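seq as requested:
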Amino acid sequence: MSNNLENERRELLGLLKRLSYRRGKVVLASGRTSDFYIDCRQTALNARGHVLIGRLLFDLIHRNFPEAVGVGGPTLGADPLVSAVSLTSSLQEHPLHGFLVRKEAKSHGTGSFVEGLANLEQGSPVVVVEDVITSGGSILRAAERVAEAGLQVAGLVVLVDRQEGGRQVIEQAGHRLLSLFDRSDFL
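struct tokens:
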């Protein structure tokens, strides 16, 4: 990682700590309770945070999954990440087309779980992104939906790994997972 990207990584961590990180008891999407919460949407929807996320996640994806032509993830947490990475990738002249994975299939129209497939050919290598993982269930379900839609999942990338077993579950399922930050960056 270049010095400039390392400086941007530190800046993004500062924004995440200020805007997204909270101490205190909370029930997570996984159903587990925790003594801290990271709401990455607060940072991802901040103008500067959006730029930093796009640059840093694009760099991580481009270096580790150069074959990828698409990026997407489970709605709602991944939506701003997908937007940021897709925009940045186009500016870097290595376009990664975005897609979103619904929790439930549409009840009308195509009934699809994955939106944005018109931009990707069947069998295209893609990366699935998520804001935070705890148990890994959400990103794994998204990766399964993406594969069922006919895309090849090259890898998984998260902004923050809470280091609570999700990585092991994902790797046992046969996926490679990369994270920009982990629990130790916040505690």
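The first strand starts at residue 21 and ends at 27.
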